[in-house]
Specification:
alpha/beta; N-(1-d-carboxylethyl)-l-norvaline Dehydrogenase, domain 2; 2 domains; three-stranded mixed β-sheet; 13 helices; globular; binds NADP nicotinamide-adenine-dinucleotide phosphate
């Protein structure tokens, strides 16, 4: 039986860990707060007291945590997974991390004999729970072949961009473009509202017009209705991704990434609504009418 250690049971990780259980893997789970593991334990997962305890005896360690800091903690911190992982274990990092972090972590883990697979994902939590994620992989081709049986329960599509770090580059540009689009639709809708347009008509026109993208269509409805329930992706995570992307852009491009910087600034404000708030709350910031004060 294949043994997986799954670390990070948030909106995405919880469903992903469940996929390994459904596929008949032996699964050890760890999350900073144990409550999120309870139903997985009832379904057969083994609770581990630490990332190190989860990694003990695993063939593959899969992590899905918030950011660089969380990733560093679960891999390399006190009681981190690396402490017990055996040489040759697959280290599959699915969290969205910065490019530099992906490179640094890969180097550290390789130095300890692990095989690093850079594998951020696209897809919402429902796709995570149903094995329909797209994996954005940066890895040596032979390593990817070895990892495929451990990636299959999570995904319908694997896009192999090249060497370690390349999956993260794509993920960051994908989410930067998303951040710019979402901030853009918020401003567009806010203008239409303040100008007194019929918003039902506006939404119909947006959905069928040339500016429509899956992001724009999904968010325009929620924004116009001020429906922020059931957040699937928070403003805090969107801000983090845009900031990582801008940092990468600044290291590669001669011109400052103006739209990217604007999106980072906008999400800096949006996340102040609350760390668990939907990214669509962007509309609440931009829609205050002129003269309404701060
Ligand atoms: P989430 O629900 O906020 O979960 C975050 C996870 O990270 C939780 O397990 C949390 O533990 C853990 N964590 C945070 N800080 C930590 C620390 N310092 N040490 C250890 N664990 C820590 O986020 P999510 O939506 O599942 O996203 C997880 C990753 O997937 C992020 O990198 C995100 O950018 C990426 N992603 C998300 C989506 C989406 O639609 N949500 C889509 C694609 C990619 P606790 O439970 O104890 O707080």
């Amino acid at each position: 039986m294949k043994r997986v250690a799954f670390i990070g049971l948030g909106r995405m990780g919880h469903g992903m860990a469940g996929r390994y259980l459904d596929a008949g893997f032996s699964v050890a789970v760890w999350n900073r707060s144990k409550a999120k593991a309870v139903d997985l334990i009832a379904r057969g997962a083994r609770w581990a007291r630490s990332p190190a305890a989860a990694a003990h005896g695993a063939d593959a360690i899969v992590t899905m945590v918030a950011d660089d800091k969380a990733s560093r903690t679960v891999w390399l911190g006190q009681d981190g997974a690396v402490g017990t992982a055996k040489a040759g274990t697959l280290a599959i990092e699915c969290s969205t991390v910065s490019y530099q972090h992906a490179l640094d972590l890969a180097r550290e883990l390789r130095g300890r004999g692990l095989i690093y697979i850079d594998s951020p994902v696209t897809g919402l939590p429902d796709a995570a729970a149903s094995g329909k994620l797209t994996l954005l992989v940066g890895a040596d081709p032979a390593d990817l072949e070895n990892a495929r049986p451990y990636l299959a329960p999570l995904s319908t599509t694997i896009r192999h961009f090249g060497s370690v770090g390349s999956g993260t580059v794509y993920k960051l540009i994908n989410n930067l473009m998303g951040a710019i689009q979402i901030a853009g639709i918020a401003e567009g809708l806010a203008i239409a509202e303040q100008a007194g347009l019929d918003m039902k008509l506006v939404l119909e026109a947006v959905e069928t017009g040339v500016a429509a993208s899956p992001q724009v269509v999904r968010h325009s409805k929620r924004m116009a209705a001020r429906n922020f329930s059931g957040a699937t992706f928070t403003a805090a995570l969107r801000h983090k991704d845009a900031a990582y992307a801008v940092k990468l852009a600044e290291s590669l491009l001669a011109e400052p990434p103006l739209l990217g910087r604007a999106a980072v600034a906008a999400y800096e404000r949006a996340k102040a609504y609350g760390s668990d708030d939907d990214e669509g709350r962007m509309i609440e910031i931009v829609s205050r009418p002129r003269g309404a004060g701060k």
